[in-house]
Design brief:
It holds the Pfam family DUF3000. The protein has 187 residues and is of the alpha+beta class. 24% of the residues lie in helices and 33% in strands.
Length: 187
């Protein structure tokens, strides 16, 4: 991972150790991972990465699958988080329109997140999220695009311990699963 984002020297040691754990996580070969600036004002301390299936076009997200993983830290341990850390994620992948029409796709997408966290031994509590299916059809000048579909999962959860690398690895597995990438590249 690119270490271009520098954590503040004033950040608590617990946060800095979590960032180092995330930076040292061995992630899937199919992914292009880069550190990005976390959104402002979401927590006293935050660290974020973006991931794309394959190498995305310059300045764009991959059309196959893309996402953002944000680790937030608040030493005050907000009651809503139930701890000092909270993960917020966004994951999106292209789907076959027939698959996207399946009424169970949203529930299956959520189950892939839960299964990925369990598969990586990432303990957590207080999960929440939404799965959104989008089916589109181009008209006029966009008619050549025909039908298209995407599934998007916005999810958050509170890690039960400070082993945050397992959460990032699980999230990368989710992104690959949504994009239909096999487990062969799994580390």
């Amino acid at each position: 991972m690119d270490n271009s984002q520098d954590s503040s020297a004033e950040a608590p040691q617990r946060f800095l150790q979590a960032v180092e754990d995330l930076r040292q996580t061995d992630l899937r070969d199919e992914l292009h991972i880069r550190e990005i600036a976390p959104p402002n004002g979401i927590a006293p301390y935050a660290f974020a990465v973006a991931a794309d299936i394959g190498e995305p076009p310059e300045g764009r997200d991959s059309e196959l699958g893309t996402g953002r993983f944000i680790m937030m830290h608040d030493p005050e341990e907000p009651e809503a988080w139930g701890g000092a850390f909270r993960v917020v994620s966004f994951t999106q992948a292209r789907q076959d329109p027939e698959i996207a029409a399946d009424p169970f796709l949203a529930a299956v997408t959520w189950s892939w997140l839960v299964d990925a966290l369990a598969g990586r031994g990432a303990s957590y509590h207080s999960p929440s999220g939404t799965a959104t299916k989008v089916i589109s059809h181009g008209f006029g000048e966009l008619e050549q695009h025909g039908e298209g579909a995407q599934i998007e999962l916005r999810a958050s959860w509170s890690p039960s311990d400070d082993a945050l690398g397992a959460h990032l690895a699980a999230w990368s597995d989710l992104l690959c699963a949504l994009a239909g990438v096999s487990d062969e590249g799994r580390s």
